[in-house]
Amino acid sequence: MSDREQFLISEEPYYREVHKEIELYEAAYAVRMPLMLKGPTGCGKTRFIEYMAWKLGRPLITVACNEDMTASDLIGRFLLDANGTRWQDGPLTTAARIGAICYLDEVVEARQDTTVVIHPLTDHRRTLLLDKKGELISAHPDFQLVISYNPGYQNLMKDLKQSTKQRFGALDFDYPSADIESEIIAHETGLEQEAASKLVQIAHRGRNLKGHGLDEGISTRLLVYAGQLVAKGIDPKAACQMTLVRPLTDDPDMRDTLDAAVSTFF
Amino acid sequence: MSDREQFLISEEPYYREVHKEIELYEAAYAVRMPLMLKGPTGCGKTRFIEYMAWKLGRPLITVACNEDMTASDLIGRFLLDANGTRWQDGPLTTAARIGAICYLDEVVEARQDTTVVIHPLTDHRRTLLLDKKGELISAHPDFQLVISYNPGYQNLMKDLKQSTKQRFGALDFDYPSADIESEIIAHETGLEQEAASKLVQIAHRGRNLKGHGLDEGISTRLLVYAGQLVAKGIDPKAACQMTLVRPLTDDPDMRDTLDAAVSTFF
Amino acid sequence: MSDREQFLISEEPYYREVHKEIELYEAAYAVRMPLMLKGPTGCGKTRFIEYMAWKLGRPLITVACNEDMTASDLIGRFLLDANGTRWQDGPLTTAARIGAICYLDEVVEARQDTTVVIHPLTDHRRTLLLDKKGELISAHPDFQLVISYNPGYQNLMKDLKQSTKQRFGALDFDYPSADIESEIIAHETGLEQEAASKLVQIAHRGRNLKGHGLDEGISTRLLVYAGQLVAKGIDPKAACQMTLVRPLTDDPDMRDTLDAAVSTFF
Amino acid sequence: MSDREQFLISEEPYYREVHKEIELYEAAYAVRMPLMLKGPTGCGKTRFIEYMAWKLGRPLITVACNEDMTASDLIGRFLLDANGTRWQDGPLTTAARIGAICYLDEVVEARQDTTVVIHPLTDHRRTLLLDKKGELISAHPDFQLVISYNPGYQNLMKDLKQSTKQRFGALDFDYPSADIESEIIAHETGLEQEAASKLVQIAHRGRNLKGHGLDEGISTRLLVYAGQLVAKGIDPKAACQMTLVRPLTDDPDMRDTLDAAVSTFF
Amino acid sequence: MSDREQFLISEEPYYREVHKEIELYEAAYAVRMPLMLKGPTGCGKTRFIEYMAWKLGRPLITVACNEDMTASDLIGRFLLDANGTRWQDGPLTTAARIGAICYLDEVVEARQDTTVVIHPLTDHRRTLLLDKKGELISAHPDFQLVISYNPGYQNLMKDLKQSTKQRFGALDFDYPSADIESEIIAHETGLEQEAASKLVQIAHRGRNLKGHGLDEGISTRLLVYAGQLVAKGIDPKAACQMTLVRPLTDDPDMRDTLDAAVSTFF
Amino acid sequence: MSDREQFLISEEPYYREVHKEIELYEAAYAVRMPLMLKGPTGCGKTRFIEYMAWKLGRPLITVACNEDMTASDLIGRFLLDANGTRWQDGPLTTAARIGAICYLDEVVEARQDTTVVIHPLTDHRRTLLLDKKGELISAHPDFQLVISYNPGYQNLMKDLKQSTKQRFGALDFDYPSADIESEIIAHETGLEQEAASKLVQIAHRGRNLKGHGLDEGISTRLLVYAGQLVAKGIDPKAACQMTLVRPLTDDPDMRDTLDAAVSTFF
Question: What is the annotated signal peptide range for this record (chains A, B, C, D, E, F) (predicted)?
Fold first, then answer.
């Protein structure tokens, strides 16, 4: 299997459009504008980029960024083989060569050398200098760079530099509206609309606690987990505690509040 | 011996169910939901996961996480041999390939690159990008990821990111009730129920001091140590001091308090 | 393709002179004076150096500096091949050998070993000691070193040492005047002068907020992004929010202020 | 010489029992309980473990822990040879394979990865995962893990984690009583009992200053040094200053106080 | 070309003696006393050492020190070639072998291992232990060690240890007197004495601002830059702003003050 | 030349005994007691250990410790050659094998792994575990370990651990008395006793300033430097400023005070 095929999305991912994000993305992709997807964890950013890659028929290479990642992890490195060293492209280089969409998830977590290395790929140059190899590559015409970050994590210590930010157009994401979210839960778990709707209402109560004892709201992903357990025959209350309450907090008061929210509906 | 057989649990581990954790685990495993086991040190989390691996007939790969562990320690690395480099899978990759349960013990101790690397294995993608090798692997259908952590260690400096937490269902663990714990001690040491019960009562006194001079309560594991020495003919008082008091604290007042508790029963 | 050709600018880059920077650059280049380009992000420093490299017919090697870059990343390193180690020139060494203009972008981000290593190339010696190789190379007569930095980032923790600063002449850059900037936007996006002018006026409002809630003004680059989306038929208001507002700030008040500025013109 | 023989203690070490530590150790070894030896520097912990290894006829592998030691220093690593890489067992792995007592001296100094790596060797599993090699080894039935640490060093920054502490039984050590210590000095230096007794009395005065200007008391080891010099014909006062005073402190007042104590007896 | 020839200064460097530094240097070199050159950036320390190396007919090896430099960067390291490892002397080792003057520029920037490694070369031993190679080399009789540092940078965090300082004689350097400095500018740029003198007067005004808003005075090097641009026909005011003002400061008030000083003379 | 011969002191070093340090050293060496030499920089500790090594006819291996030195720098490491890896003994291992005196200069500067690694060489075991090689070596009967440190540097951040300190006897060193020091200067420089005596008197004035503006007194070594320049015909005042004043301080007041002291005598 060639590199390109390995990274193609073979089946249409389930995605429910919220605002006009599909149209805006298509226009941005048409001019190969680098994009930044902003929004809380588990609200559908990863699913959206997979959907767009599928819709546009482009390979997608996703990299989960972290503070220990080096520029070499993105660009590539020399490996030893029987004839000496052999160059191994990193995921960013592969994406630039095969014309993939390269999705750097939570790029704000990465060290600066990771974020600076993408600069020449995000302006009119569209080049990448493999300095260790002495090669200057021009990105494939289909290549596009997309990054995500969660403004909730943004703090004084960790933020993108302005010279990085100003290289991206930005799309905001949030949890879907109650109707759409219920529809998503039902679709992903096979639950009835009514049970799905109850889970969404519990989530809304939990999301109101963000900033008042919870760092982050209950994500759509956790609602799907809860629904899956209920669909397996687990008592809804136990299922919700296991998926919507226990993972989020160890604070006894917050747990009581969330448990009470669960009890209201089940 | 193949990799898979090396990691199978050959004999049924002794495990005493406390709440309904076995049923909940089985439902979560049925949908391959990533799980987080929460609870104090030495209360049986490791024993539980070994029991479940045995019950489900799945290999178990355990990794004791620590702050010096890198993503390569989990994923794998290139080694040199006579024909150049050879790829060596790490424990997480092995688990994903052979369909094992991968248990990351005290994952909160690990560096961020360790925790972020598990993200694509914990959502609908169930993939792992071996970026150094340029290979995207899909997890075996039997693969499941389980992590443990001790909320008592949780502090401002070290906590899982919300984007990691919200990928797991969670099960709470605590010390077993007095009856069950006595039964466990008796089973593991061969002591009479009565002596085992005295040890458990000493433990209860010690556990009340958690947060009042002790960082952590006396674990079931230490009670087993005490029982083993008593069963070997050591004076119970000396045995308790050596296993229930001296390891826990060097504070003279706390030692006196704990020694007094021991004297009450032996 | 030889190294030299790979780094030549083949087509004249579009550049609109603002002050007399072209004449000053040419005089500085005539005596091979090292230069420092100062100014905010996205105001045209990179475009200017590309234009000058084209005008002077010199190859251009650009390195995006970052805090994880080592001196070896600039100078070079030994690699293994079938016959043992082979020296691989880094970009600075290549530039010194082939007589390129070496442009170190945001050099203040680099570690000290990167900035000190350039010293002997920036005085009468014009030499570079490849200490790992034991070779002292004299720069090609055409070689020139150019660095950029953004005074807005300058702080107590990160600044060039005086012994580095005093090796460079300096040229100030800023956003172009309204007329010139509108002309640039129109040229780069194909928009009418009038729409381009509206975008520039929005930018001026945003730039006044620098230091009053925004870390940096809206760059010319972002205006080009906005114009490109409008030219693709996207509603101007949505286009401006996506390119001039969302990338810059997550502060609700600043977003309202900037959205209001957009609404004034579209 | 095989690995095992290299680590056997060939002659009975001189050891004077203080409490019942020999009996307690033997019972703990019988159930292969991991042990922690606690006490001040130079009071005989190392001598005790050598004595026990001799008494039980087990090889002893001692590792002086330090904050730069990595898990690989304990477990092992790949080395290159003519046919590629060759695995070299570390001291902990060797001990687990040959059934040695592995003594980790001042384990609290080590980094976390060193302390966490011992966990699976200290519970019912008695296994060690050589993750870099993909091998899970079961400890030899004779293997036992012993660690030492000095509570006086214990501080907020450096302490064992509770999940480590609760894997060990603990034995307290302190300086021997005056009679026993005099006997030890006399035995080790060939001095008369009377001179030895004077040295011990000086030590007692110094030990009272612990926490009142001295970080640590005068160790038995230093008394042996003093006795050795006196036995070589050095003036006792000069010998004591050189071995009991100058090494401990540079504070003029403390030196005067200790010199005065010396003058009282010699 | 042999190593020695590569480092000989082939042409007499232009150097204007200020005090009796040439005589003092010659006497110090006669007894091979290690020397420390002290003074602000750009006042001629590097030129002086090149002049002395030329005058004494000794090769000169200059190393720009920095905080990322390791002892191996000075001493040397093993490299791989077809027959295994090959030792590569570092610049300090080369200098000790061939009898060069080794000039460590801004040695205070280096890490401690760099500064301690020079100790045995700076006392009666005149040896260098290549510990990685197990070789003890005696310095060539012509070898001398010279270091520079700028007292202005000296602070509590970064200073040479007394045990390093007390191994060096020291020569103070400062900007030359007005007459001599004008002569230097005229010589280096081809300007008339009068124009050169104006530049020096501007510099004097700037140097008075050191400690009152400027970290460092305007160096002789920058005056040469200014003179070169004027000699190329650039307007003197623009030339001075580009070389004497913009590189030094971004503070608007300081820039105005310096611009005013420029306007006084041109 | 064998390793042993390379490290023998071939000529008697000039050393003037101050107290009874030679006798004390000989007694300590007779029982192979590890020793610590304490005293200010440049007072003769290094010369003393060279003298004793010569007197006892033992090879001397000196290591200048520093904070970047690792345990491997002392013990040794594997190197690659044509047949794979080859072990290279470090200086401490070489000393233990050939029976040298190993002198660790300023050991307090080293990292903990360096200081802990010497523990088993400094008690009754006299062994060194080459853990990377899996070899336990017993020290040659002639081997002795000597360390130096300067109490003036001792601070809260950097001090030897008590468990290290209590493994050494200690000898105090200080500047010699005026008579002896004059004799040393005269011997080393060829100056008349009178001129030497003047230099010593200047030094005494400077030493009184220690702790009152100077971090450290003027060392005997610097007096020798001054004498050497005077003997070469340099004006004594200039010679003293260059060697006794400028290296020590950049504080204008301290320089005036020291210059005045110089003027009193020359």
Answer: none
- Please check whether residue C33 is in contact with residue C169, taking contact to mean a CB–CB distance below 8 angstroms: yes
Q: Are residues F182 and F115 in the same domain?
A: no
CB pairs < 8 Å spanning C and E: 121
User: In terms of domains, do C202 and C233 share one?
Assistant: yes
**Of the residues C147, C172, C197, the one at which a domain ends:** C172
The answer to whether the CB of B237 falls within 8 A of the CB of B228 is no
**For the domain that residue E38 is a member of, what is the CATH number?**
3.40.50.300
Taking chain A (266 residues) in runs of 10, the rounded mean pLDDT of each run is 78 88 95 93 89 96 82 81 75 95 88 80 89 86 93 61 88 92 93 94 92 86 94 94 92 92 93
- Residue numbers in F near D153 (CB within 8 A): 161
- F266, F244 Cβ separation under 8 angstroms: no
- Would you give the end-to-end CA distance of chain C in angstroms? 49
Helix or strand holding residue C26 (H, E): helix C21-30
Q: Is the pLDDT of residue B34 over 90?
A: yes
CB contact under 8 A, A38 and C250: yes
Identity of the residue in E33, E162, E171 whose CB atom sits nearest the CB atom of F41: E162
Q: How far apart are CA F189 and CA F210, in angstroms?
A: 26
List, in sequence order, every residue forming a beta bridge with B256; answer none if it has no partner: none
**Chain A residues with beta carbon closer than 8 angstroms to that of B124:** 47
Residue C69, Cβ density class (10 Å: 0-12 exposed, 13-18 middle, ≥19 buried): buried
Q: Are F52 and F25 in contact (CB under 8 A)?
A: yes
B-D C-beta contacts closer than 8 Å = 121
Question: What pLDDT digit, counting tens, does each position of C181-211 carry?
Answer: 999 999 999 999 999 999 999 999 999 998 8
Contacts of A215 in chain B (CB under 8 A): 162
Q: Read off the pTM.
A: 0.77
- At E1 the pLDDT is 39
| Whether residues D100 and D13 fall in one domain | yes
Residue in chain F lying closest to D233 (CA): F27
Residues D150 and D259 in one domain: no
Gap between the Cα atoms of B228 and B239, Å rounded: 9
Write out the residue range of the structural domain in which residue E218 sits: 178-265
Sort out which chain F residues have CB atoms less than 8 A from D5's CB and list them: none
- Quickly tell me which residue has 């433990």 as its tokens: B203
The pLDDT tens digits of the residues spanning E155-191 come to: 445 678 788 889 999 999 999 999 999 999 999 999 9
**D214-264 confidence digits (pLDDT tens):** 888 899 999 999 999 999 999 999 999 999 999 988 888 999 999 999 999
Nearest-by-Cβ selection for B24 from A7, A215, A242: A242
Angle at B211 between CA B209 and CA B216, to 5 degrees: 75
Residue ending a domain, choose from D172, D199, D228:
D172
What is the ipTM metric for this complex?
A: 0.85
Task: Give B-chain residues touching D115 at CB under 8 angstroms.
Answer: 66
Interface test with F, best of D214, D250, D258 (most F CBs within 10 A): D250
Q: Total domain count for chain A?
A: 2
Interface mutation target, options F29, F116, F123, F149, chain D, most CBs of D under 10 Å = F116
What is the Cα gyration radius of chain F?
A: 21
D123 and D14 within one domain: yes
**CA-based radius of gyration for chain D:** 21
Same domain as A188, residue A231: yes
CB A225 within 8 A of CB A243: yes
Instruction: Give chain A's length.
Output: 266
Give the gap in angstroms from C-alpha D229 to the nearest C-alpha of chain F: 6
CB contact under 8 A, C24 and E234: yes
Q: CA F43 to CA F21: how far, in whole Å?
A: 14
- Residue F193 and residue F156 share a domain: no
Taking CB atoms and an 8 Å cutoff, what residues of chain F touch D46? Answer: 123, 125
